[in-house]
Amino acid sequence: MTHAQTETGARGSRRAPASRRAKPPRRRRRVGRWIALSLVLLVLAAGGAGYWLYSDLNGNIKGVDLDRAIGDDRPEKLPTSGQNLLVLGSDSRSGANASLGTGNVSGARSDTALVIHIPEGRSKAVAVSIPRDTLVTRPECTTKDGSALPSAKRVMFNSVYSLAGPACVVKTVEQMSGVRMDHFLEIDFAGFKGLVDAIGGVTVTVDQDIHDRSSGLDLTAGTHELDGTQALQFVRTRHGIGDGSDLGRIGLQQQFLIALLSEIKKQDLLGSPTKAYRIADKLTASLTTDSGLASLTRLADFGRSLNGIDPSTMETIMLPVRYDTQDPNRVVAAQPQAGRLWQALRKDQRIPASAKKSPATGGSAS
User: Fold this and answer.
1) In the chain, what are the helix, strand and coil shares in percent, each to the nearest 5?
2) Who wins on pLDDT, 17 or 203?
3) pTM of structure
4) I need a labelling partner for 61 at 20 to 30 A (CA). Which of 30, 37, 165, 254 fits?
């Protein structure tokens, strides 16, 4: 045997026994198990955080059971009536709203009311503004403390909310229109401001200077990007335009609604989870809905069902009204225009031009 063969044999004879050769694979498997366990823990941690975030946001939303609150005294839901959503902007000055420079009025009213009709197919929508100063017949309702509120005639529309809450507003709108509201959604001053700030502002264009000492809005004619505070001033402005009545600012509210929806639609929320959470947090903290929408998943499903609607094609209409003969500072529904408008929504039909003409315009051209 040569020296080389001896060395080769010696090296060959130094191979570890099978039991010892098995240790490195066990170490590799042990390391693999630790990696797998770590990944599982990370996934569980992430899932827990996701669940916490979901629960946190979901818990923000306040829900109202309309069927229980209103009962059976509601318009029939027609099979081809599309979807009808009542959107309320409440002007509560309590809590976070108190620091927004909105005055010291006690209680809360429905400062803004929009009936949004989404026809079958959900490719377009129409928004009907109900002036807050409209005199209406309030139906019998149950107040927040459970007591009965009798029916009353010639009450201001925005007073219904302060006396009996959103369910009574829904009932009032249903009785005056004959249109069943499938859902309602309410947001207060603080939530509105926070939403606008969270999406980075909203761009609007005005064709005249607006200077309103009451709301604080000070804009020159042209295009402006409004932050949350300015946006709140914009939709509350009434003294800087038209005749200073509520009718004048409805045009600004409708203009801002379209601009806001357009901005939300173009936001890349999936590309920015942080922004998506920030928006959801601001929105849900100030949100009240019917029980059918009172969860993130239901709101998301409803929102996705409306994804085909282009905000720029949304038609905005003010409920046709005329000045009240007894009190010129109040308005009443103008007939037959208002009746034709509500009938078109009930039957999911095109709204005739004659149903859009309002004798009272608030000094505006609309």
Assistant:
1) 45, 20, 35
2) 203
3) 0.78
4) 254
